[in-house]
Amino acid sequence: MDTTNTINFQDIIKKSVLKMDQFASISIIDTIIGLVLSGLLGLFIYYIYKKTFRGVVYTHTFNITLVAMAMLTCLIIMTISTNIVLSLGMVGALSIVRFRTAIKDPLDIVFMFWSISVGIATGAGVYPVSVLGSLVVAAVIVVLSKRQMKDVAYLLIINYHDQANDGVKYQLNKLKYALKSKTVHKEMVELIVEVKIKGDNTAFVQDISEVEGVKNVSLVSYDGDYAP
């Protein structure tokens, strides 16, 4: 009795799948609209990423990847929405893909998920979600990035002789700084501190370099990660 019920249940599943059309109808116009909209939103993400980038080195290829990722995700969603068997095969194929590129800036992950989300929403035909969602996310990122610009962090690297120690400390006390590393080699000292300044006010670099005994002073952009 149990065997018969099991067989009948399997037959029902098989018949339900076989009765489905091999491919659902997706018009060429819908495909073009989805690709164009995902491409435009990808370009919008491209623009926001470029304008709000605050890292050390801007990567143009990564920004281009955001545009292509939105369009490719849209294609995948439109493809797997046509047939349940094809969708299962696509999921299985994508599950074996491994990305080994290290993401240095956590904000880059946000842009990647944003691009993927745009592709999913556009491919599924939920255009208001992709458009309005992109506008809200962009507004949040722009506002928060402008607030961060008020106080920018830099690494200040100073090489000086021992006799310049008091003069260097006097100049550093005028700044907001945090000690990151100090290396002493014979009579030479290398001091690395994190300083936070507003705008492009870097006159203190010249003041420190004029201290007697200071060999050189370097100011470099700092994204928060430092390994001595």
From TrEMBL:
Pfam families: DUF4956
Spans traversing the lipid bilayer: 23-49, 61-91, 111-144
Keywords assigned by UniProt, alphabetized: Membrane, Transmembrane, Transmembrane helix
Protein name as it appears in the record: DUF4956 domain-containing protein
Organism: Brevibacillus porteri
